[in-house]
Specification:
By secondary structure, the protein is an all-alpha fold. Helix content is 81%, strand content 0%. The longest helix is centred in the first third of the chain and has 37 residues. The two termini are 38 Å apart.
Length: 171
């Protein structure tokens, strides 16, 4: 349909060459979109593959290495990966724009949000089976709703209850 509208509009200009150029551009655009979509699917597949093996790999690491050493190794590898990525993308210069106060705030949030979470997750993997630790780990959306109703006095609506049940059953 798009080509029919395009040919009708171009026939009024009387140029077959223009039609061929525009059709070639459209075809090239579709090819490029297809290449980018395939690349995105590959990235999505790799992300799911890496994320789904996190518990098993961490459990294997924790058999030989203590919890905080495992955390240090994973943090160091993440740091190296992000540093290389920033250097490759030429965004490492932006690190100089932050003040000391900004780095203190980021460090505090990183400690609370990432370090404690990962340390407790690794501790759970060390003490429990992988299945039990993963079930407890992925209950956090439900816990947020429950604690917000208890601490912040938010009401649990029908939609929130449905979302909690969906989250619990893995939908």
């Amino acid at each position: 349909m798009y080509f029919t509208i395009l040919t009708h509009k171009l026939s009024s200009f009387g140029g077959k060459l223009k039609l061929k150029i525009i059709c070639a551009k459209i075809h090239l655009n579709f090819i490029l979109q297809d290449v980018f979509m395939r690349k995105n699917y590959i990235y999505a597949f790799l992300t799911v593959a890496v994320w789904s093996t996190t518990a098993a790999i961490s459990k294997l690491l924790l058999l030989d290495i203590p919890t905080f050493e495992t955390l240090a190794v994973s943090g160091f590898l993440a740091f190296l990966f992000l540093l290389i990525l920033n250097i490759k993308n030429k965004t490492a210069k932006k690190l100089r724009e932050y003040s000391f106060k900004d780095y203190c705030i980021m460090s505090g949030l990183g400690f609370l949000g990432l370090f404690l979470y990962t340390a407790l997750y690794y501790f759970g993997l060390n003490e429990l089976s992988s299945q039990e630790a993963c079930i407890l780990n992925y209950l956090w959306p439900i816990m947020i709703v429950i604690f917000s109703s208890v601490i912040l006095k938010e009401k649990i609506t029908v939609l929130k209850a449905f979302a909690m049940l969906s989250s619990f059953f893995g939908i």
